[in-house]
């Protein structure tokens, strides 16, 4: 069975972990392996691009150098080429132009490029036939950020079944021919697209947790991994805050009928979670996820009453400023909606103001309960609301899908809301 494996930053965050990854891809006979940068690298590179002070910038670069040289020293027998590659990378990052707008994204790509180079060297030292592929050669995006899947498929055609191919997630070439990226979490998306392109039967996403849990184990006690779920459920959970999986990962795999399996690098024997076309669970409530940094925008206008075209005008403003809407509720004279990106909030509010009275409120969290919440089944919503009866709920969204019910709450109430839902529903 042809497989594409993706490993996150923690999975390749040390020499010891890289050895685990190498053992896994040999065991799984992965034809294509997609790697993130070593954990902490991208955050450090972002700081470098945003730092104007030479001393502060050099301190971060020195720490990166120590991190990568330590990994190379522990991992490789022949260190010469890897050290030379690392030094060249650090020199590029330290160059005066690295903070220019045109160079910043190229700087952010260096973590993936260096990590995959070091890892491929290690695989070769283990006696395996390995080839390092440069993702920006075949991962191209248009002006809207959409990946050219035809070019991707052609670029990955005719892979040798007896060779381990290693490449980078996250990075790409944009419409202007510049080194760019798919955004945070884009490595999962890269792996999904690449897996579909080479005809994989399965795309595996390896992290440091045993699959998708029924709730966020960082905030909630007594969570458990879900062994199987549908594409639709996984998409809802990923979009509404489940950190283990990037939300864009699901769609290309769902459309191509490629299963996604979530696995734990630190415990390769653990079963993980299989995401497939359908699941065999009869549970009404499958999992809960939470999405922070949500801003509410409320528009109140008497002109909405018995009028048509009002919502179209609202949506056109958000479309103009390329800002997605998460939740929306309406009444006869008001509409409330939420966004998780405030990059163009001032411009959006300015253009909404002629439509009515505008209120903006930050510090919110969307909590999403996912499962078989069928509108024909009575009492399911009552169970959810009973479990959060002590929490102030600002918005409710249900009906667009029978797979989920979403609640908007103050972020300060997040932890107790998640714990209460976990205790009551599961």
Automatic annotation (TrEMBL):
Record's signal peptide: none
What's the Enzyme Commission number for this chain?
2.7.2.4
Which protein family is it in?
Belongs to the aspartokinase family.
* InterPro entries cross-referenced by the UniProt entry: AceGlu_kinase-like_sf, ACT-like_dom_sf, ACT_Aspartokinase, Asp/Glu/Uridylate_kinase, Asp_kin_monofn, Asp_kinase, AsparK_Bifunc_asparK/hSer_DH
The Aspartokinase ACT domain sits at 367-423
**Record GO cellular component, one term:** cytosol
* Record's keyword terms, sorted: Amino-acid biosynthesis, ATP-binding, Kinase, Nucleotide-binding, Transferase
What Pfam family is a match, any one? ACT_9
- Where exactly are the transmembrane stretches of this chain? none
Q: In which pathway does it act?
A: Amino-acid biosynthesis; L-methionine biosynthesis via de novo pathway; L-homoserine from L-aspartate: step 1/3; Amino-acid biosynthesis; L-lysine biosynthesis via DAP pathway; (S)-tetrahydrodipicolinate from L-aspartate: step 1/4; Amino-acid biosynthesis; L-threonine biosynthesis; L-threonine from L-aspartate: step 1/5
- What protein is this chain from? Aspartokinase
What is the protein's species of origin? Mucinivorans hirudinis
The protein's GO terms of the molecular function aspect are:
aspartate kinase activity; ATP binding
